[in-house]
Amino acid sequence: MEISIRIRIVIFILLVRVQHIQPADQADADDVNVYIVYMGGNRFDQHLLNSEIHYQILTSVLGSHKAAAMALMYSYNKSFSGFAAKLNAAQARTISTMKGVVSIFKSRVLKLHTTHSWDFMGLPLDGLTRMPIQEAHHGEEDVVIGIIDTGIWPESQSFKDDTLPPPPSGWKGVCQGGEKFSKSTCNRKLVGARWYVKGYEEANGFLNTTEVPEYRSARDHNGHGTHTASTAGGSQVRNASFLGLGRGIARGGASRARIAVYKTCWVEGVCYEADILAAFNDAITDGVDLISLSFGTTTPLPEYFASSSNIGSFHAMEKGISVVFSAGNAGPDPASVSNTAPWVISVAASTMDRSFPTYLMLGNNMTIRGEGVNTQRPNDTFVQLAYGGTCGSRLPRSVARKIVLCFGIPGGDNSLVAAVRVYLAGGSAVIFSEVPTKVVPSVLFIPVVYVDMEQGAKISLYYQSSRFPIVRLSSSRSVVGLEPAPVVAYFSSRGPSTLSPDILKPDITAPGVNILAAWPPVVPPSEVDVDTRSVDYNFLSGTSMSCPHVSGIVALLKSIHPEWSPAAIRSAIMTTAYVRDTSLELIKAGGSGKPANPFDFGAGHVNPIQAINPGLIYDAGLTDYVVFLCSLGYTQKQIRSIVSSAKLNITCPEKSSASDLNYPSITVSNLESTTTVKRTVTNVAPDENCVYVAVVSCPPGVEVIVKPKVLVFKPHIKTASFSVTLKPLKHSNGVYNFGRLAWISRDHHVQSPIVVRVNNIKDEFKDAKQPNKSNPEHREQTYLKSEVYDDAGAV
Ligand SMILES: *[C@@H]1O[C@H](CO)[C@@H](O)[C@H](O)[C@H]1NC(C)=O
Ligand SMILES: *[C@@H]1O[C@H](CO)[C@@H](O)[C@H](O)[C@H]1NC(C)=O
Ligand SMILES: *[C@@H]1O[C@H](CO)[C@@H](O)[C@H](O)[C@H]1NC(C)=O
Ligand SMILES: *[C@@H]1O[C@H](CO)[C@@H](O)[C@H](O)[C@H]1NC(C)=O
Ligand SMILES: *[C@@H]1O[C@H](CO)[C@@H](O)[C@H](O)[C@H]1NC(C)=O
Ligand SMILES: *[C@@H]1O[C@H](CO)[C@@H](O)[C@H](O)[C@H]1NC(C)=O
């Protein structure tokens, strides 16, 4: 049998996984890599926003202008200054010492947060269709959502522009042509398209689209970008479904907003940082109102200004552009969250109240209700049942034409791997048994029915006791309102943030399991070539899918409150989130089945209607983030070169703590003794006269004192500050505890999670105290340079 490219890739992945082959990583000193040289916002040196300076630096290091032109890949000269170039370690080191250079780092490869649908592809419908958001909000038309992803399928019904006026007047984006995508492919819905392939090609060689299923253009040959774009800002499409499943109206969170796509992620879902930074550089000046990104790196996380995502989003924030990131699919391990900058929104994923029952009837007449996405016609034929164990190695040909029972084991192979093994042995379907809270039914190329371990054991017993075991598979149905929902998805990355543990991450959770959204008809729904189905809507799961839900809500809030800052919008989303599920119990965490905590879902589940009118907001602007950077140990000089505005007076305070950033959650990750954090809230309610009372639920073992306990707002008193004093009442050595602060008025509940780790037992082995941080200039040396050397392979 001919094995297709995609199947081969799957098999390759299996081999890599099974044999633990790691890519070679001997950094030879002469090795040429793509480095990103970041030169900051250049508030005083506008001339640095000029490619000539980039050429000068490269010429001085490489010897000639010609060599410099050959090495230069991108010159970032619009929204911030920097460049990407091919350099060896010694050259990178030389550049790191040059004037104007803030940081230099290797362009890493980031991955889409669906695990490329390998693990977590699923089923149901757009989470927002059940939320009664106001129809056709006119302001939405003025909002442009920037999507940095795998491109777009422009002909999808989700991107039709029938009822939209021309793009907003301030829009400066372009429609960049390319393969099967012309300058006129854009419309009044899809108002911009650009693509960036240099970083990809430097790592992988020329992208030859006669050999690889891709388009050298903004056209999507992966599906991920089409899916995320339609979730955030897709038009309304009636009667959308995946082969009949999940039928309903598909639409984005802001269905009249505009979409601009920046394609930086290519075949197999890889995105190179040099390309990503180029996309930010353009998107910020094109005039997008928000940027949605569903990819990232895994821990260890790079330092804030040695990461394209953090640099790009920082300069976006400076311009008032909201940036929404997926939190990652590395859960449920603690401290697995990525994309944790405090100037972005980091989104976890959870389920909806929709399920896809798929019935199995065994030869002994026992009926078992599993979950699946089996869209084959109902078939009354019984088929022989085979036993595959963990289906973790090659299966015998004897399973051909049979339905194979496979068991998932913790840390073992997932259902995709089982499906590939069963497919290769000629089997007709898979019954996949695993821990129930882990189940995320996936669209695969052969039917897979997911059952829990108990059901799996029953099927296994039947198999052993029967001389001729047979089973019948029903087609799946979609059912709404069945189970307590939401549940935080097993795969969703968890806090605390390893980079700045005093800022709670993720911020919020949103639907990210079994999301139905637009899909390119040329891409098989299971993304494997043996799957010959062509669909316009497909089910995917991942924080990649929850992120654009929040992006859609950000677009909606921008349209209603165009004057709100990115921090104000995030605050509205976080303080109005809910933490109880449809059965009014605390939302559970998939995997453990235990009540979820803020490391699972941040402030809770997004609640768009409440977010429109949150009452109070915790605002923050550039000055607040500057103090935050001071608290992390950045020097004034470094911060001055990063910040774009020349007007801002950048002076680090004597003492600063990341816990004091005016964030809508309160976190003290190392509470050694009584500590006070400060917050300021702004009344944004239509009612200018109102009174709020503080209601606290204390973390176990910690006393929480809020001062003052009452906040009074009047037409001339819009803001109020308060302090929260956290007093340890116990001796502990590093356990996190959770509580809540709510400001309650007649009309509003403004809620914040409190996260505290009491750490007051003296431990002689504990790290020595940090050097005195009170004198900012004292820390001038500690910057990135040492990391640069490490990264460049030197001592
Ligand atoms: C900015 O970069 C672009 C593309 O690299 C280049 O064409 C343009 O001339 C540069 N502009 C300035 C002012 O350097
Ligand atoms: C792309 O691949 C095709 C088929 O292998 C080959 O004929 C063609 O020369 C390649 N194009 C480039 C630019 O390498
Ligand atoms: C919805 O689409 C299906 C095909 O997917 C079609 O058979 C059906 O008639 C459509 N229903 C409506 C109301 O348009
Ligand atoms: C299963 O049900 C059918 C029809 O109701 C019946 O004829 C058959 O004997 C049953 N088989 C067993 C093993 O109970
Ligand atoms: C039912 O499934 C069996 C095995 O998969 C197949 O041989 C048979 O043709 C199917 N029948 C119908 C009516 O689809
Ligand atoms: C900047 O702010 C600091 C502290 O707020 C103040 O001491 C200093 O004088 C200010 N500098 C300028 C140039 O305004």
Q: What does this entry look like structurally?
A:
The structure is a single chain. This protein is α/β, with parallel strands linked by helices and 795 residues long. The strands form 10 sheets. The chain has a 7-stranded parallel sheet with strand order 7-10-6-13-15-16-27, sandwiched between helices. The protein binds 2-acetamido-2-deoxy-beta-D-glucopyranose (6 copies). Residues 364-365 line the site of one 2-acetamido-2-deoxy-beta-D-glucopyranose. One 2-acetamido-2-deoxy-beta-D-glucopyranose is lined by residues 377, 379, 381, 383, 428.
**Computed structural class:** alpha/beta
Instruction: Report the count of strand segments.
Output: 39
Backbone CA Rg: 26 Å
The helix fraction, in percent, is 10-25%
How much of the sequence lies in strands comes to 25-35%
Straight-line distance between termini: 52 Å
Note the overall shape.
Answer: globular
How are the strands ordered across the major sheet? 7-10-6-13-15-16-27
Which descriptors would you attach to this protein?
single chain; about 800 residues; alpha/beta; seven-stranded parallel sheet; seven-stranded mixed β-barrel; 17 helices; 39 strands; globular; disordered N terminus; disordered C terminus; binds 2-acetamido-2-deoxy-beta-D-glucopyranose
